[in-house]
Amino acid sequence: MTLSQEFAATGATNTSNFQAGVALLRTVSDWAFSLGVGFIFALSALILNYSLYQSKLVPRWLSAWGFIGAVLLLAGHLLEYFNVNPLRILDLPIAVQEMVFAVWLIVRGFNPTALASEPTKTEMNEVQISLS
């Protein structure tokens, strides 16, 4: 907005400075979107699916599918930084997995045996065990 207001205020005699500024802002916006939405989402999907795989709260095939989809998404976004335009088909596995995961949680929920199988180990439990 500021750039367009300055452009209008100058009377548009020399537009090259404003065109360079617009190109710079568009590039920064594209990089911020790619980094923020793509890269950070892929990393968080990796962490989530790894945690679900280790805890067995959902079937392992579902969390493995999400992990593989997140790796493909991350690879696609990393390729963009090297000016390689990957096909957006790399986004498809994680997109479908997210929908299947949502339906799975609505219909089946978390695995109750995985929730009850490991007692939580806290400092208070350790103190009580050592005092006994």
Can you describe what's shown?
With 132 residues, the chain is mainly alpha-helical. The chain has one domain. It has helices at residues 2-10, 16-55, 60-81, 92-107, 112-117, 123-131. Helix 2 (16-55) runs antiparallel to helix 3. It is elongated and about 75 Å long. The N and C termini lie far apart (69 Å).
Structural key phrases:
about 130 residues; single chain; mainly alpha; elongated
Short recap of the structure:
This protein has 132 residues and is mainly alpha-helical. The chain has helices spanning 2-10, 16-55, 60-81, 92-107, 112-117, 123-131. The chain is built from six helices and no strands.
Helix and strand element order: HHHHHH
N-C termini distance: 69 Å
The share of residues in helices is: over 70%
Number of domains: 1
Radius of gyration: 24 Å
